[in-house]
Amino acid sequence: MIMSLETQKKIAARVMKCGVSRVWLDPERVNDIDEAITAADIRRLVKEGVIRKEQEQGVSASRKKKIALQKKKGRRKGHGSRKGAVSNQKKFWIKRIRTLRSVLREMRAAQRLEKRTYRLLYLKSKSGFFRSRAHLTNYMERNNLLKEEKERKE
């Protein structure tokens, strides 16, 4: 009874406890492999070295470092990389946007922001530009968007 080599590969994968893609068959001993129809036959061929388990493929250290650096910069956060329920991500968004909007409202009420500046920062917040309240306040200070005491009294 002659079986296709595909079946032998499956049996070998089961015997060697690995995936089918990792099974290597000696191309010069195809006839011997073709005659092997039981797991015992496959075990004998493994012992002889006719069938081998290929080495697992991993991620190189340099590639790992490169990916880690990208993640540190905030890359690789697209839709395909996200884990967990969408509802959880939405809760984080709601918490952040409410905080940012309340800070902007307070600043506008205290007349520390002009209407145009308020609208600009509001839209930036909405687009996800600011990571946190600290990022927003830091941005306002760095770009001189806040009115000083003297300017407000005038």
Provide structural commentary.
The chain has 154 residues and is mainly α. It has two domains: 49 residues, 50s Ribosomal Protein L19e, Chain O, domain 1; 70 residues, Orthogonal Bundle (Non-ribosomal Peptide Synthetase Peptidyl Carrier Protein, Chain A). It is 60% helix and 4% strand. The radius of gyration is 32 Å and the shape is rod-shaped. 10% of the residues are buried.
Strand-helix topology:
Layout: H1 5-16, E1 23-25, H2 30-35, H3 39-48, E2 51-53, H4 61-73, H5 86-109, H6 115-126, H7 133-142, H8 149-153
Antiparallel strand pairs: 1-2
What would you say about this model in short?
The protein has helices at residues 5-16, 30-35, 39-48, 61-73, 86-109, 115-126, 133-142, 149-153; strands spanning 23-25, 51-53. It is mostly helical. It has two domains: 5-53, Orthogonal Bundle (50s Ribosomal Protein L19e, Chain O, domain 1); 84-153, Orthogonal Bundle (Non-ribosomal Peptide Synthetase Peptidyl Carrier Protein, Chain A), CATH 1.10.1200.60.
Supply the helix-strand structural class.
Answer: mainly alpha
Count of discrete alpha- or pi-helical segments spanning 4 or more residues: 8
Low-confidence stretches: none
SSE string? HEHHEHHHHH
* End-to-end Cα distance: 100 Å
Q: How many domains comprise the coordinates?
A: 2
Taking all Cα atoms into account, the compactness measure Rg is 32 Å
State the name of the first-level CATH class of the largest domain.
Mainly Alpha
Helical residue percent band: 55-70%
**Using DSSP, what is the number of strands?**
2
Largest sheet: 2 strands, antiparallel
Output the strand order for the largest sheet.
1-2
Strand content: under 5%
Approximate shape? rod-shaped
CATH architecture of the largest domain: Orthogonal Bundle
CATH fold description of the largest domain:
Non-ribosomal Peptide Synthetase Peptidyl Carrier Protein, Chain A
